[in-house]
Amino acid sequence: MTEETGPWLVAGLGNPGREYAGNRHNVGFMVADLLADRLDARFGRYKRVMADVAEGRLGFGGPKLVLLKPLTYMNLSGGPVAGLAQFFQVAPDRVIAVHDELDIDYGQLRVKRGGGEGGHNGLRSMSKSLGTKDYVRVRFGIGRPPGRQDPADYVLSDFGAAERKELDFLVDRAADVVESVITRGVEPTQNLYHGG
Question: What positions are marked as the site Stabilizes the basic form of H active site to accept a proton (predicted)?
Answer without folding.
Answer: 100
